[in-house]
Design a protein that fits this description.
With 436 residues, the protein is an all-alpha fold. The chain contains 16 helices and no strands. The chain has helices at 6-28, 34-43, 61-111, 120-127, 130-145, 157-161, 164-168, 175-205, 210-237, 250-275, 284-315, 318-330, 332-350, 359-385, 394-415, 428-432. The longest helix has 51 residues, at 61-111. Residues 47-62 have low confidence and may be disordered.
């Protein structure tokens, strides 16, 4: 049985405490009036928001003043969105890690893979985070529906009333149906996770393979639900912050990001447990295969990123290409930086088969991959919610620290609930003797 060390537990509590302080500071520093917003913009010397949008010449003076007032109100909403966006990006990022692991786990079950059963308890522990992580994301979505923030512009009835395109999407993008879908998604994911975990533990105590076979069947069925629900979730929770823009690749793109992030965390937790004397039967070949997936899915993510970017950029349709113009003009460093972190770095470090077996090398690469995919989610959300008023500040750092602490606490506490090695999985001996 795994024992949750006091040192790691205290570290997770410290991360959460510091994170709460950072999140609180982010909300307290957000402006409440247009004047405060102007002062914050003026204090930045990077030119953000410095363009004079008013036109006070002759008969157009009144129109210019109205336009300027509208712009000032828009900047206020952007700055008020900043702590909410930081919280949402971090909340979604850590939840999507657990969701990516859930997909990987279901695939292993449905494929009846022989190499991975030794890692099932690690995967089950990581997916345990879906419960608190999913609830927190859902609460943020509910608060958005209650107009506590301006993350989703289509939730504002006044905006929709003056936007013909959003009026055409009201059948799908409406607050009630939005929350109903969220409940269905989260309910389906958590229900599968809990039932599959129950069957996994039951199999250890049974004298036949009935639980294993049932787990195989429900995993295969769940993957169908997962593929549909994950795509719709990505439209709802991420793409709809830019409701005028869409991409038919977007569901797969978000899936690739969460899939590689999840596999990376499986590898990092496994290496940590081995360093503490656990998972004795997990060998270098298991680590190699996880690193191989990290490498392969990073290539897959890059293929999707380039396909989406190049087709939209080459077609040069104004309502589509504006998505990338905004990111290239205002988010150049995080936009291109995350491509380097998510593609060049893992390709250069994990191309060599021998490096995939070096634990510290896998950990180092994993940290960069996770940071890169956090920036990926950052690039998806921030341009639509805060515009050019972005920077990595106290709110962003605090949110990451809080959810990292919560994630560590929940995952490693879940590891203590059952033996780290399954007993009666039919493929456990094959997994013990796995060699690549």
């Amino acid at each position: 049985m795994y024992t949750f060390s006091n040192r790691l537990k205290i570290a997770s509590f410290i991360l959460m405490a510091v994170g709460v302080l950072g999140i609180g500071a982010g909300f307290l520093s957000a402006p409440s009036t247009v004047e405060e917003a102007k002062a914050i913009v003026a204090s930045h010397d990077d030119g953000h928001g410095s363009h004079d949008t008013s036109n006070n010449h002759g008969a157009e003076a009144g129109h210019g003043d109205a336009h300027s007032a509208e712009h000032d109100l828009h900047v206020l909403h952007q700055l008020q969105n900043k702590p909410w966006s930081a919280l949402y990006v971090a909340a979604f990022f850590f939840m999507m890690i657990a969701l990516g692991v859930l997909a990987f786990y279901a695939i292993q079950r449905a494929a009846q893979a022989g190499w991975s059963p030794l890692l099932f308890r690690v995967m089950e522990a990581i997916t345990a985070y879906l419960v608190p992580g999913g609830i927190i994301v859902f609460v943020i979505l509910v608060l958005s529906v209650l107009h506590m923030n301006h993350l989703f512009v289509w939730m504002d009835a006044d905006v929709v009333a003056h936007d013909a395109l959003l009026q055409g999407k009201k059948g799908f993008l409406n607050p009630t149906f939005f929350l109903i879908r969220a409940v269905i998604f989260l309910g389906g994911w958590i229900l599968y996770r809990e039932y599959s975990r129950k069957l996994s533990l039951k199999q250890d105590e049974s004298d036949d393979n009935a639980s294993f076979k049932l787990n195989f069947r429900i995993s295969a069925a769940f993957l169908v639900f997962y593929l549909v629900s994950e795509s719709m979730m990505s439209w709802d929770w991420i793409m709809s912050v830019d409701p005028h823009w869409f991409s038919t690749l977007f569901g797969w793109y978000v899936f690739a990001s969460m899939f590689v992030s999840g596999i990376t965390v499986i590898a990092m937790v496994t290496v940590y447990l081995k360093s503490k004397g656990y998972l004795e039967d997990v060998n270098d070949s298991h680590i190699h295969d996880l690193a191989k997936f990290m490498f392969g899915i990073s290539i897959f993510w890059t293929y999707l990123w380039f396909s989406q970017f190049m087709l939209i950029w080459y077609s040069n349709i104004p309502e589509e290409v504006t998505y990338y113009i905004t990111r290239i003009q205002d988010y150049r460093l995080p936009f291109f930086g995350m491509v380097a972190m998510n593609f060049l770095f893992p390709v250069l470090l994990l191309m060599n088969s021998d490096y995939k077996r070096v634990n510290w090398f896998v950990i180092m690469t994993g940290i960069v991959i996770l940071a890169g995919h956090y920036l990926d989610i950052f690039n998806m959300i921030m341009p639509a919610t805060v515009g050019d008023q972005w920077y990595i500040g106290i709110a962003e750092i605090g949110s990451v620290l809080f959810f990292a602490g919560l994630f560590i606490f929940w995952v490693f506490r879940a590891l203590t609930k059952a033996p780290l090695q399954p007993k009666r999985n039919p493929f456990i001996e094959e997994s013990k003797h796995f060699h690549y």
